[in-house]
Amino acid sequence: xLTMSGMEDKKFGRYERQTMLPExxxxxxxxxxxxRVLVVGTGGLGSPVSLYLxxxxxxxxxxxxxxEVSTTNLHRQVLYAEAEVGxxxxxxxxxxxRALNSDVDVKPYACRLTPDNAAxxxxxxxxxxxxxxxxxxxxxxxxxxxxxGKPYVYGAIEGFCGQVSxxxxxxxxxxYRDLYPDEEAAxxxxxxxxxxxxxxxxxxxxxxxxxxxKLVCGYGDVxxxxxxxxxxxxxxxxxxxx
Length: 242
Prior knowledge:
Elements: H1 4-12, H2 16-19, H3 25-34, E1 36-40, H4 46-56, E2 60-64, H5 89-100, E3 105-109, H6 118-123, E4 127-130, H7 135-148, E5 152-158, E6 161-167, H8 176-179, H9 183-188, H10 199-217, E7 226-231, E8 236-241
Parallel strand pairs: 1-2, 1-4, 2-3, 4-5
Antiparallel strand pairs: 5-6, 6-7, 7-8
C-alpha cells in the first residue's frame, strides 16, 4: 500500500528536480498542476514558452494561432520539423506538448484572436502569455486582461534584443498602455520584420515561462510594472521601472 509520501513521489516524480527547490516543493507543483495558462502565438516565443510550461507541469494550456509552418520558421520555432511545413502550427504544437507531458491538458484554438472571441477565450484561463507579433493583438490582450483581472505576461523580440514584463496583475498595476500609450501611433509603424536569431526568442520565451511559474507558485520578484530588456550582442540586460 502506498503511503501519502509514496503517492506524492509517484505523482510528482518527473518533477523531482524542481520540487527539490524550496520555492516550489509539492505545494507549488500542485498549484502548477491546477493552473490554466493561455499562450497566444505558437511561433518564435510561443515555442519555448509552451514547451517549458508543459515540461514544468502546468495542468491546462491553451494555444492560439491561425498560421501554418513555413521553412523560414524552422531556425527559431523549435516545436516544428521540416516534414511539417505547410501544416497548422497550433495542431502540431498541441501534439508536441502532449508527447512531452501526457499529464497536461492542451487545448488548441486554430484561429486568430479577435474582439469577437478574445473575452470568452481568456475568461477560461488564469494567466495570459503574449507570444504574438503585432500591436492590435497586444492592445486587445491588455484591455481584456485588465477588464478580467488576469495577469498578462508580455514578451517581444527583434534581432538580438528582447523584453519581458508582467501587466495587469492587479487593478492598480501597470499595463501595456503604460509602455505604449499612443495606440494610433503604434498602428502607423511600418510592419517590416527586421529579422531575428533563434536564440533571442529562446531566451525571452524562457523568461516569460519563468514569470508564469513565479506567478503561480508565488516566489521571487515578478516583473510587475517593470520591463526586463536584453541585448545578446553585448549580453547587457536591464530592468526598468515603468
